[in-house]
Amino acid sequence: MKQPKHFITCLLLLFICFSLSGKEDDMLYLSGRVKDAVLGTELTSAVVVRYDAAGNRIDSIKADRGRTYKNGEVIELARFGFMVERKDSTYVFDVECPGYITQTVTYRVENVGKREDRREIPIVFLQKAPHKLNEVTVTASKIKFYHKGDTLVYNASAFQLSDGSMLDALISQLPGAELNEEGQIKINGEFVESLLLNGKKFFDGNNQLMLENIAAYTVKSVEVYRGQTHEEKWLNDPTKEKHLTMDVRLKKEYNLGAIINAQGGYGTEGRYMGRLFASWFTPLSRYSLIGNFNNLNDNRKPGKSDTWTPEMMPSGTKRYKMAAFNYDHSNRDDSRKLEGYVNFEETSNNNYNTVARTNFLSGGNTYDNSFSHSKSSNLKLETRNYQTLEWKKFYFWNVMTGRYIRRSNMSDVISATFNKEQTGVTRQMLEALYSDGSPEVLEAVINRSVTRSDGHGREWEVQCFPTLNYKIPRTNDIVRFQLGVKYKDAKEELWRDYNINYGADPVAAVTKRQYFDNSPNRRLTLDGTVEYGTTVGKMRLNVYYSYRFENTDKDSYMYALDRLADMGIYGTVPSGYLAVMDPSNSYTSRLMTNRHSVKPILSWFPKIWPKTELFIQLHPEISLQHDHLDYWRDGRDYLVTRSSVVAVATRYDASAIFSWGAISKGRRLTYANELRYSFNYNTKTPDLLHMVDVVNDADPLNIAVGNPDLRNEYIRTHNIEWIYRPDGRTLSNTLSGSASFTTDALVRGYTYDTTTGVRRTSTYNVDGNSSYSVNDSFMLQFGRRQQFTMSANAGGSITNYADMIGVDRAAPEQSKVTNHVASGNLKLDWQIGRQNVQLSGGGMLRHTISSREDFNTINARHFNYGVLGQFVLPCGFGINTDFMFYTRRGYGLSYLDTTDAIWNVRVTYTPRGGRWVFMADGFDLLHQLSNVNYAVNASGRTISYSNALPRYVLFSVQYRLNIMPKKR
Q: Could you tell me the residue ranges of all domains in the chain?
């Protein structure tokens, strides 16, 4: 193994580079901020005027917002700074701001450390002047997006939205943005890691709650940048990883006072919804209350430009209830913070599904048909609370969470597998298969299974993670301590019935009734981390040591009730059940994990050429992990231990960022080009339970087998990205590429018995997994009045996937599948006054081949194209609509190769005053959207039908109120 050699090489490079960077600077940087003395808001128009010892004016410095964003700030800070000599001295300067009383500040510098290069001046608070400024109206062009430093800013007022629209409708219209049905957001192909509201988390970053409850009319701008947490900013460490962040900034009038936004509606097919959002804002506090109940099971909005396709149509019917309270409070200098939330959710689902699946197998395909009915309910109560205390040299942060979940479910399934494809299969046909089935059908049947499953359980979890940071006086060195404790307890009871026939035999070969008692199920996790960071010249070294202990106790007892003379009533435990415990499918286990990790991080940020920036970071990690599994099953103890040391548990990471072509924007710099590269070498250890040499045949058709010879999985990934923004405003292009290679990939393979349809599954190590991809995202706003906006995305990928499949008890053999995918989409917006029209189109070409014998090569094509419009009509009326075509080709089946025309419309009426909005939403007005889902992959083709109700009309009314304080 070469990994230890690589790690030692990285360490040598780290410390050689660090030792060469010991040259000290003769200057000290003084930094400060300016705020309103009453509201605590940042005064970004402030100017700092410096004087010499004789009282003569030296220079003036304006508060620099752009630089704050460049360093990853989440909120706009009125920050200023200047260089002084590294010696004891006193500095006097005035802080001025229009509308405020000028304040003279005297600041003393003394006891400067040898390696100290920065000092923080206490926040300057200005009092308002006793006169009131006249209001100024600024008229500007409706630029939809521009760059401010390294921040991409979307101007919300430039986007035309229907009355009643929420934040999700705005996000989906942003050029370069993608919003999926789960609330995940992509910007230029990269996932947004943190969604914020006015620089702060909303319900701990719950995207869906924020997207569905923040009204679009309250938003001023949406800003995208690579940001840091409040703790990372306090550390003032430029080497800390920055996360792609989207910050939704509210208009000034919605930052103070109260907002109420409520909506209720009823529609066809018994659809209903109700929603309440109420929030009280001050510059220092925010309290929000959210309520929601509906049975829509659908987050589509007419006229919404997102990634939705007919394949994403949700199945089943769903009832949803939730109530939540969120709080966020801080003092005026942000040194004391308290935030968190309490959330209650209850979900009920009722699904009917019909599935037809073709299994791609060498020697001949098999065909599964199943009909199922399932009901489930889930209740969750959750709270998460954060406390922050900040001093000059100390920063304390703590998170405490608690969660309780109660769930229950039931399902009944009838299914059959055939060696020839059948037509006209119904549930009634399978029920009467052995009484009324034709000779041809009985000759083709491999098995028929009638199963029923019921279960209920609960779990609760608590955790606490305190963190303490300490800045060592007279240096830039930082020590960080973190402790963590987490405890989880769960209990579950399950009932399962199996009735299985093989071939044409009308007598059931397998009849089982099982009762599972899965308790106790407990997990205790203890964490500890120590970090030390120091800076020398243009280099910074951070060294982490962390320790984790985890203990998991899990017992599962299965009782074969069919062995009793009287099984009793399904769902009720009969007397004497303890005597029929099945030891071969019952177990007790205790897993203990001890992991020690050391991670040095070396960061280098030299200034090589004017108007350029370079940032290089190396962060290898070495870990020693020991796992001990004590597993009892079938009257036998299995002791499985595994130690992973340098060779198998090492992680290597490296990254570099090079920016050039600086464009001056006052005191801010926007770089026209930015090149990013990152490398990652990671290790994945197998689940020890998969290494226990036992057979689990509780499910007669899916038998699991252990594999004690599993090895670790190694993944190497390269990523490169080039961002081009020549003017910093109306043009932006992002080109990215990646390559990933996996050695000893852990895959779940199986052996398929074509005579019975039984699968014997196990985990295997395989080689040959790799992927290559390239993607380009382009945004442009143009026209004499900037009325046109174009966004385009194009990409391609080649993915090689290796798996293990065997037929008829033969040893599984490795087979390879290669996917070639090319995709792209184009959106062109035309803003005509208050009207907006968007032409949208996209497509995907897929070519799938395999080394597997008799594999059916897949050549599939998906296209979508159409028009979206948002129109403001006289007398308070408005229309939002989308008319799209969705085309599939290449599957060779008439019910798959189709074109669906989908038309959705929203009509709104807003009376004078704007507090009430009346809406009528119509979905799938042409009634072409079916409740059929298609999925084709390397192992088979699946077609499923559900009881979803795709076409409906919903009538609703929305009430909104903004209460402003009389004195501001």
A: 27-126, 145-254
Give the CA angle between residues 421, 425, 427 to the nearest 5°.
140
Segment 734-780, tens digit of pLDDT: 999 999 999 999 999 889 888 899 999 999 999 989 999 999 999 88
- For residues 554 and 589, is the Cβ–Cβ distance under 8 A? yes
Residues in the chain: 968
Give, for 442, the enclosing helix (H) or strand (E).
helix 439-444
What letter would DSSP give residue 295? -
CB within 8 Å of 178: residues ≥ 6 apart: 185, 186, 189, 306, 307, 793
**What CATH architecture is 145-254?**
Beta Complex (2.170)
3-state secondary structure of 664: strand
Decide: 321 and 908 in contact? Cβ < 8 Å.
Answer: no
* Burial of residue 445, with CB atoms counted within 10 A of its CB: 0-12 exposed, 13-18 middle, 19 or more buried: buried
List C-alpha distances in Å: 124 to 33, 47, 106, 233, 590. Answer: 6, 12, 11, 19, 57
pLDDT for residue 259: 86
Residue 520 preceded by cis peptide, ω within 30: yes
Does the fold of domain 145-254 match that of domain 27-126? no
Listed as ranges, residues in the chain with pLDDT below 70 are 1-25, 39, 53-55, 64-76, 131-142, 149, 205, 230-241, 303-307, 643-650, 664-669, 727-729, 853-854, 936-938, 948-949, 965-968
The pair of three-digit structure tokens given for residue 364, joined into one six-digit string: 């001949």
Q: Tell me which residue of 598, 693, 596 sits closest to 643, measured CA to CA.
A: 596
CA–CA–CA angle 411, 416, 417 (5° rounding): 135
C-alpha 945: how far from chain center:
28
Q: What angle do CA 608, 609, 613 make, to 5 degrees?
A: 70
Bridge partners of 871, per DSSP, are 879
- DSSP letter (8 states) at residue 753: -
Q: How many Cα atoms within 13 Å fall on the side-chain side of residue 131?
A: 5
Q: How far apart are CA 115 and CA 539, in angstroms?
A: 12
What is the spatial distance between Cα 765 and Cα 588, in angstroms, rounded to a whole number?
Answer: 27
> Is the CATH number 2.60.40.10 carried by domain 27-126?
yes
Instruction: Please state the pTM of the whole predicted model.
Output: 0.79
